[in-house]
Amino acid sequence: MDFDYFSWILLGLPLAFVLGWIASRLDLRQLRIENRQAPKAYFKGLNFLLNEQQDQAIDAFIEAVQNDPDTSELHFALGNLFRRRGEYERAVRVHEHLLSRGDLGRVDRERAQHALALDFLKAGLLDRAEDALRKLEGTPFEAQARLALLAIYERSRDWLQASEISRKLQTAGQGDFSGRLAHYLCEQAIGAEPQEAERLLRQALELAPQAARPGLDLAALQHRCGEPAGALDTLVALMDRAPLAVPLIARPLLEAARASQQPQRALQVLQASYAQAPSLDVLDAIVALDASSATPRDGYVRHLEHEPSLVAAARWIEGEKFEREQFHPQVQRALEHAARPLLRYRCAACGFEAQQHFWQCPGCQAWDSYPARRVEEL
Known about the structure:
Domain LapB rubredoxin metal binding: 345-369
Pfam families: TPR_7, Zn_ribbon_LapB
Helix content: over 70%
Order of helices and strands: HHHHHHHHHHHHHHHHHHEE
Number of strands: 2
Family: Belongs to the LapB family.
Strand content: under 5%
CATH class of the domain at 70-170: Mainly Alpha
Protein name: Lipopolysaccharide assembly protein B
Binding site for Fe cation: 347, 350, 361, 364
């Protein structure tokens, strides 16, 4: 029995060695096959992506990820594709899977955190996007994260948080945000009590003295509080600091001058401004104030000497008498209809047009992108 036992051992050892060798060869062969399949699927996905075949590209990248689940670049490519297609839930799952990996390096972890924040932003999940962006403080994505946070706070009208982020961006040398900070103070003043609103607006004036909005809002507040003379002083001072905004200042100046019974002072200031830079809005205010002139509307004709203007021509014709007066209303309506689009304001950033002037474009959300002059004068 002992001889048979050892005989079987002696026979079994070579057999086990042969079986182990065969198994290792099979494992190596399988590994080579998988390694060949992974780059093949990867390049196939790239080819589909270059040909703008996103569905096929996603299938190829999913196959590549299944063959090599430890490759982070494949996950990033797949997550970005999902986000571009609007499949935000799948993009979130990909990037959260990356962040859950313990072997992920710091650089890739920060990159995955930034990609996850973009997924939430695109999906409109602002609370989760805010949390994800806050985690990017102190990373190479810090500046981008702060700009995204600023957009979130502006969208949600959280002006205090927006002010905090703007100050951080300015301190970090990312640009001059003083004008935007002044807008935030003006926005806070809208719903405040008069005394608090005046404090905020004067703070905005100190922060951005050349900005037009704080002075205009302060003058409007003074007018509402029964101080038209103060409003007039504020607007006259603003015309010196912000000459490009004079077309926006002309109408409030006219109203403050009438309320404070100082039409001559306003008329002199407007005439001096018009002589330097002719403007239809300034001319309208001059015509309204120039009661001493026998033919105040002749100013519109003189304006045509500076530049051709359908608006000015229509306003002059409106007050004129003609031989065939019965046709005057029809002609006047036609001219006003043709001139109406020329009275709009146009955003310099996106081209969005509106009948009223906006400090922040409703289309692209850019600040101070609307010139003070109307379309016809651009």
